[in-house]
Amino acid sequence: MSEPEGGDAACWAHLFDEYAGEGAGPASGVVAVDVAALAAAAGVAVPWSTQSADLNVNLLVFAAGDGVAPHVNGEVDVLLAGVSGEGEIVVGGERFPLRPGRVVLVPKGQERSTVARSDRFAYLSCHRARKGLMPAPRRPKEGRHDH
Questions:
Q1: Cβ pair 42, 15 in contact under 8 A
Q2: Which domains does the chain have, with CATH numbers?
Q3: Whole-angstrom Cα distance, residue 124 to residue 81?
């Protein structure tokens, strides 16, 4: 298990619950994180990520109108889970709202993009481990916000 990445370790180390139960913690490979607190405390971008031999998980945070530009992932299915705020996932031209308590499963091979609809939008991206491919960020056009 690799160490979590993102942000200054001193800033977010207290948010980890190293012992979430009997046998949990660094020695067992368990990673327990308060992603809502991380999303609230962080700036925008990717304040936290972790990777095991089988799984990649990233916490992404965006300001209103920002997000991830349209791209196609041909390698893995991706589960997106809302953490805070409201956003929208567009998959193959179809729009899906994403907010806390909602998930969207995007099959590999589908074009997808995200956009923040609230002042602060955070979500988890979870998929089978693979080499990282970072899609281009979405930025609002000059003088226009996609609210």
A1: no
A2: 9-130 (2.60.120.10)
A3: 5
pLDDT tens profile 82-138: 999 999 999 999 999 999 999 999 999 999 999 999 999 999 999 998 765 555 566
Residue 14, phi then psi, degrees to nearest 5: -70, -15
User: CA 14 → CA 11, 53, 55, 68, 93, distances in Å?
Assistant: 7, 25, 23, 29, 40
What's the burial of 80, exposed, middle or buried (CB within 10 Å: 0-12/13-18/19+)? buried
Q: State the pTM of this model.
A: 0.71
- List C-alpha distances in Å: 5 to 10, 24, 49, 59, 112: 12, 20, 5, 10, 25
Q: What percent of the chain has pLDDT over 90?
A: 54
Tell me the CA distances in angstroms from 129 to 13, 69, 72, 115, one per residue in order: 24, 22, 17, 24
Can you give 24-90 as a three-state secondary structure string?
CCHHHCCCCECHHHHHHHCCCEEEEEEECCCEEEEEEEEECCCEEEEEECCCCCEEEEEEECCEEEE
Query: Can you tell me the distance from the alpha carbon of 115 to that of 3, in angstroms, rounded to the nearest whole number?
Result: 29
